[in-house]
């Protein structure tokens, strides 16, 4: 008898629990909704997090990743308003080199134009290039900076700081001044297996690509991102305030002669002007020349005049016969030579 009563009580309890649970789930949906939508806040949080990541992602990293090759290598040049103004701006002439050069057109896909002011940034965007606006802390980098002026030196140090940031983001790059014409693809003449940390142009090549006696020029160089090269840029930039009257290139030369390259274990190659030439020392072989730099020149106007002559020389060479190539001569860099008289 007691057993039957217990079974009835148990059965009754089970029924009450069943109806109570059914009521919560189906008959009172307003109260049950939090249970059914328990995972919704997680989805909303995930979307918010993704949105924040999109908004606050490093703008430089976006620009670098968009421009670089699969092995995180890109080309970089830096411009300001003075390089995009005029009937034939320096930036346009620079791009002409890629157009008339041999195997150079596709390299523009991996060229990042770094603008130091809004005008040059807008011009870059108009040309549909890869563009990055460099913040300059309200310093005026808009107008032309004559060689070795105080503003010129400040602009060069700002460039050095930016390029150090690129290395710290893990990207290898070729830095090129805008007054360098790319007449051939330079990569066949550069070490690409990363055995060389730095490959840098020279004003006058002394015949030994490993000699620190070569007068380097920071207007064109290829550098790989690693601990050694980042340490180089850290030391280089740290000397900014102890180098009154010296441009960043002079400071790098001084550090090199003080043994910093060897101390850091850097493998450095100094580039032959036969391939990577300039107005300081013309390439003696038009069949091999890769880049032409308007170095040993003081003003943008002079550089434009003499680089335009280089473009004409190059077109003349491309349209010439083999016999004419043997007698080829570059035009005199008259405007650049005269720029030092003012």
TrEMBL record:
<comment type="similarity">
    <text>Belongs to the glycosyltransferase 77 family.</text>
</comment>
<keyword id="KW-0333">Golgi apparatus</keyword>
<dbReference type="InterPro" id="IPR029044">
    <property type="entry name" value="Nucleotide-diphossugar_trans"/>
</dbReference>
<feature type="domain" description="Nucleotide-diphospho-sugar transferase">
    <location>
        <begin position="107"/>
        <end position="307"/>
    </location>
</feature>
<protein>
    <recommendedName>
        <fullName>Glycosyltransferase</fullName>
        <ecNumber>2.4.2.-</ecNumber>
    </recommendedName>
</protein>
<keyword id="KW-1133">Transmembrane helix</keyword>
<feature type="transmembrane region" description="Helical">
    <location>
        <begin position="12"/>
        <end position="30"/>
    </location>
</feature>
<keyword id="KW-0472">Membrane</keyword>
<keyword id="KW-0961">Cell wall biogenesis/degradation</keyword>
<dbReference type="GO" id="GO:0016757">
    <property type="term" value="F:glycosyltransferase activity"/>
</dbReference>
<dbReference type="GO" id="GO:0071555">
    <property type="term" value="P:cell wall organization"/>
</dbReference>
<keyword id="KW-0808">Transferase</keyword>
<dbReference type="Pfam" id="PF03407">
    <property type="entry name" value="Nucleotid_trans"/>
</dbReference>
<keyword id="KW-0328">Glycosyltransferase</keyword>
<dbReference type="GO" id="GO:0000139">
    <property type="term" value="C:Golgi membrane"/>
</dbReference>
<dbReference type="InterPro" id="IPR005069">
    <property type="entry name" value="Nucl-diP-sugar_transferase"/>
</dbReference>
<dbReference type="InterPro" id="IPR044821">
    <property type="entry name" value="At1g28695/At4g15970-like"/>
</dbReference>
<keyword id="KW-0812">Transmembrane</keyword>
<keyword id="KW-0735">Signal-anchor</keyword>
